[in-house]
Amino acid sequence: MNADQTPNSAQQERARWMSILAKAPVPELAASVRKFGELPSYLWLRKPETGLAMVRARTGGSGSQFNLGEMSVTRCALRLATGETGVAYVAGRDQHHAEWAAIFDALMQGEHRSVVEENIIKPLELLLQQKREQLQAEAQATRVEFMTMVRGEDA
User: Fold this and answer.
1) What pLDDT digit, counting tens, does each position of 97-154 carry?
2) In whole angstroms, what is the distance from residue 75 CA to residue 62 CA?
3) Residue 149 C-beta-side C-alpha neighbours within 13 Å
4) CA 83/CA 65 separation, integer angstroms
5) For the range 34-43, what are the long-range contacts, defined as Cβ-Cβ under 8 Å and sequence gap of 24 or more?
6) The whole model's pTM is what?
């Protein structure tokens, strides 16, 4: 943690990069791993395991909660030889995705932070932002505007 970061802002920053790593498309994350080079050695605290998580939703986004359904989630935890601990929870069953996310989570907590931020996190964040904007543009293109006409006797 930097001297100018409060514990809460450090937690928010970690949550940001963990979210990016968890949402990153696997092909792009794999390319980032190859570009990074040799990954550090680590000890498994919890090998990747896949299970189910209940997804909850709200009616209209603000109504009462209900169980929407279950989804597959893969999680793992590891400790680098230098002592940093990395964890990951990713949607789906890809154990390599979880492993890579946990490794980069651990690296972001140590001396390799700036290298990982510049070469892994920022490019993935940009890619995710571009995909979000593309989806929004596609959704906007299908938007239908409705208008109400008032008849003469109802005016």
Assistant:
1) 999 999 999 999 999 999 999 999 999 999 999 999 999 988 888 888 877 777 777 6
2) 29
3) 2
4) 40
5) 35/119, 36/116, 36/119, 36/120, 39/103, 40/80, 40/81, 40/82, 40/103, 40/107, 41/80, 41/81, 42/78, 42/79, 42/80, 42/81, 42/86, 42/103, 42/106, 43/78, 43/79, 43/81
6) 0.81
